[in-house]
Amino acid sequence: MSVGLVLEGGAMRGLYTAGVLDVFLDNNIKVDGIIGVSAGALFGVNLPSKQKGRAIRYNKKYANDKRYMGINSFIKTGNIVNKDFAYYEVPFKLDAFDEETYEKSNIDFYATLTNVDTGKAEYIKIVRPIDQMETMRASAAMPLVSKMVEVDGKKYLDGGVADSIPIDKCISMGYDKIIVVLTRPAEYRKKKSNNTLAKMMYSKYPNLINSIQNRYLNYNNSVEKVNELYNKKEILLIRPSRFVDIKRIEHDANKLQEIYNLGVEDCNNKLQELREYIGV
C-alpha cells in the first residue's frame, strides 16, 4: 500500500506543517510520496531527512535577523525572503540539511511551482534539495514581493498561485492512501482580492495574471474537494483546530512557536485516526 502526502504552503503558517511532520517522525508514520507547495516544500523536506525540530529551530533563531527575511531584504534584493542567507547560508552552513538521509529515504518528493508563461502548475521531483535549491526557492517565491526564479530556462513563482492544494495531482499519481495537511482552519475561504498591482507588474504574463485572478476560486474549490473526500473517508485530513494570528512574514518567535505547537497538538489528536486510515 502506498501513501501520498499533500502539504499546503502559507509562508510562516507552514510551521504548523512542521509540527505535524515532527509528530510523524516521533511515531514512525511513513509515506511514499510528498507533494509540497511553497513553505510546504521548504519545511516538508525535513521529513525525508528525519530532522525533527529543524524548521522551527532555524526560523525562531533568525526570525528577527535582517539577513533572513523582511522589508530590509526586499529593498536591497527585491526578495522579501533573502536568497543568499535563507536559501544558502542556513541550509548549507548554519543549520545544515541532511541530504544523505534524505536520499536514503526513497520518498518521492515533488515541489509545486507556477510557470509564469503558462500560468500553470508544474511539479518538479526533488532528488537532491541542496543541488535543486533554486527549484525549492521558486516554489516559495511569493508574487509581488519576490523576483521570478529561473530554472532550466523557465521562469517561476510560488506554486500556490496555480495549485495551492495539489490534491488532484496526488490522486493522479495513484497512491492508495492520501494524507492532506492544510495550514488554515476549517472555516477559512479565500476572498477575491484587488489585483491591480499584479496586473501592472506582470503585464507581460497574461496567463499568470489569469491564475492570480482565479486563485481564490481554485483554492476554495480545492478546499471543498478535500472536505468531500475526507467526509467520505477517502483521504485523511489534518488542519489547524483553531485560528492563530500569524503573519506570512512573522518576526515574533512566540507566534512561530504557537503555530508549530498547534501542529504537534492537532496531529497527536489525530494519531489514532491516522493509524487506522493507513493501516498501521
Description of the molecule:
The model has no long low-confidence stretch (mean pLDDT 97). β5 and β6 form a beta hairpin. The chain is α/β, with parallel strands linked by helices and 280 residues long. The chain has 12 helices and 8 strands. It is globular and about 50 Å long. It has helices at residues 15-26, 39-44, 54-62, 71-77, 83-94, 99-104, 133-139, 167-172, 196-201, 206-213, 215-231, 253-278, and strands at 3-7, 33-37, 108-115, 121-125, 149-151, 154-158, 177-181, 236-238. The chain starts with a strand and ends with a helix. Strands 1, 2, 3, 4, 5, 6, 7 and 8 form an 8-stranded mixed sheet that branches.
Question: Strands, helices and their partners?
Answer:
Layout: E1 3-7, H1 15-26, E2 33-37, H2 39-44, H3 54-62, H4 71-77, H5 83-94, H6 99-104, E3 108-115, E4 121-125, H7 133-139, E5 149-151, E6 154-158, H8 167-172, E7 177-181, H9 196-201, H10 206-213, H11 215-231, E8 236-238, H12 253-278
Parallel strand pairs: 1-2, 1-7, 2-3, 7-8
Antiparallel strand pairs: 3-4, 3-6, 5-6
Helix pairs in contact: 1-12, 3-12
Poorly predicted regions: none
Shape from CA axes?
Answer: globular
Helix content: 40-55%
Q: Beta fraction of the residues? A: 5-15%
Q: Averaging pLDDT over every residue, what do you get?
A: 97
Structural class: alpha/beta
Biggest sheet statistics: 8 strands, mixed
Compute the number of helices: 12
Spell out the helices and strands N to C.
Answer: EHEHHHHHEEHEEHEHHHEH
* Cα end-to-end separation: 11 Å
- Give the tally of β-strands: 8
In terms of quaternary structure, the protein is single chain
Gyration radius from CA atoms, angstroms = 17 Å
